Amino acid sequence: MNENSARIVVSDTGALISLEKITGGYDFIRKLYDVILVPPAVMEDLAENYDSPGHYLRYYRISDLITVKSTELITIEKKLDKGEIEAISLAFNLKLPLLIEEAAGRGVAHFLGLSFSGIARQVVNAYKKRTISADDACDKLNELMHTNRINPKVFDALRSKIW
After folding, report:
1. Which helix (DSSP H) or strand (DSSP E) does residue 117 occupy?
2. 123 and 132 Cβ atoms separated by less than 8 Å
């Protein structure tokens, strides 16, 4: 399967933390993507409270979903954390979409012409593709709001696209 036929996305740490916060988050994202590429710094961030990256992957049962991949870093003028820089560079170099939540990183992704979104937008997209039901989409958006992964304004805007 080449990169054009596989459903591949690059992710920053924040988007994956959002998936951890919703019921069946990783099961949900599997409906949309076959592979999630993460740079080493993102894997380090995710595994920070685990014995090892492998332990994190086994805990969430995603060893077959997440692949760590290094890339040459691009020059980014904004002050971003290491994981964001690596994730944006990886998406840019491989010409793949990016899952990213933080505003500063999204601004850089926009400037670079990358296709990007957060998990809340992925929920709405999954609903529009009939991958998940309206009730499931609203439940996931509710969980994102109640775990402070999206604010009420974003919640209302996205929920209005479902109901």
Report:
1. strand 116-117
2. yes
